[in-house]
């Protein structure tokens, strides 16, 4: 099973807390991993930065959104408990909880910087703008950086393939200087190419 996005995690996160007991975020994450049938390999997939597991990151963002909507609270650092509002939401038996669903709560609107929730559809499904919200902000940043890196790499390679030999030699000499070749003074010379088209 693919690793669920942070919005898919929201309702199960609250259901883990439905008994009203204070639980550690690690305990909740472990229960969620079992509920989503994640393998050990899937639990340990890292973000591109290599600093945190993808699943833990998504659980953390689900927690953050639920907390800012007032559905859960942090009684102590690293621990969570469902709020009275959260219990009321669960009692209503929603089919899902996502960012659009959370817009009904004034504290969540303040959190996301929105003025009102008049753009809600009756079916509650994600709009095109909100599809990107299925990724955490860190995932979006890393994905965007990777896209920019690849685009820059392709553009540079295309330009280098289309340049003349003199320009290519100039670029190589500048690159060698930039990475420290050429001594203290950064010396490097471009030779005059003879017999090149």
Summarize the entry for a quick read.
The protein is mainly α and 197 residues long. It contains ten helices and three strands.
Give your account of this protein's structure.
It is built from ten helices and three strands. The chain is mainly alpha-helical and 197 residues long. It has two domains: 6-142, Arc Repressor Mutant, subunit A, CATH 1.10.10; 163-197, no CATH class. A three-stranded antiparallel beta sheet has the order 1-3-2. Strand 2 (72-73) and strand 3 form a beta hairpin. It is elongated and about 80 Å long. It starts with 5 loop residues before the first helix and ends in a 19-residue tail after the last helix. Mean pLDDT is 83; it is low at 117-129.
Per-chain topology:
Layout: H1 6-16, E1 23-24, H2 25-35, H3 40-43, H4 54-68, E2 72-73, E3 79-82, H5 84-91, H6 99-102, H7 106-112, H8 128-131, H9 137-162, H10 165-178
Antiparallel strand pairs: 1-3, 2-3
Helix pairs in contact: 1-2, 1-4, 2-4
- What kind of sheet is the major sheet? 3 strands, antiparallel
Over the alpha carbons, how many angstroms does the gyration radius reach?
25 Å
Average pLDDT: 83
- What overall geometry do the principal axes of the alpha carbons give? elongated
Report the uncertain regions.
117-129
Range of helix content: 40-55%
Kindly report the CATH topology of the largest domain: Arc Repressor Mutant, subunit A
Strand fraction equals under 5%
Tally of individual domains? 2
Biggest sheet strand line-up: 1-3-2
Strand tally is: 3
CATH architecture of the largest domain: Orthogonal Bundle
Class per helix and strand makeup? mainly alpha
Any idea of the CATH class of the largest domain? Mainly Alpha
**Cα end-to-end separation:** 56 Å
- Count, helices: 10
The string of secondary-structure elements, in order, is HEHHHEEHHHHHH
């Amino acid at each position: 099973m693919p690793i669920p996005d942070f919005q898919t995690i929201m309702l199960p996160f609250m259901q883990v807390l439905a008994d009203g007991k204070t639980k550690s975020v690690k305990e909740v994450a472990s229960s969620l991993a079992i509920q989503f049938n994640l393998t050990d390999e899937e639990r340990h997939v890292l973000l591109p930065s290599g600093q945190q597991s993808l699943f833990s990151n998504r659980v953390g963002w689900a927690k953050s959104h639920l907390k800012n909507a007032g559905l859960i609270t942090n009684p102590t650092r690293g621990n969570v408990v469902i709020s009275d509002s959260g219990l009321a939401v669960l009692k209503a038996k929603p089919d899902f909880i996502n960012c659009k669903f959370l817009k009904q709560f004034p504290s969540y609107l303040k959190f996301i910087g929105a003025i009102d929730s008049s753009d809600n559809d009756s079916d509650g499904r994600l709009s095109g703008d909100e599809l990107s919200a299925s990724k955490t902000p860190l995932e979006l940043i890393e994905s965007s950086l990777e896209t920019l890196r690849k685009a820059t790499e392709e553009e540079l390679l295309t330009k280098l393939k289309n340049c003349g030999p003199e320009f290519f030699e100039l670029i190589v000499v500048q690159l060698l200087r930039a990475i420290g070749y050429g001594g203290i003074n950064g010396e490097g010379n471009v030779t005059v190419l003879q017999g090149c088209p």
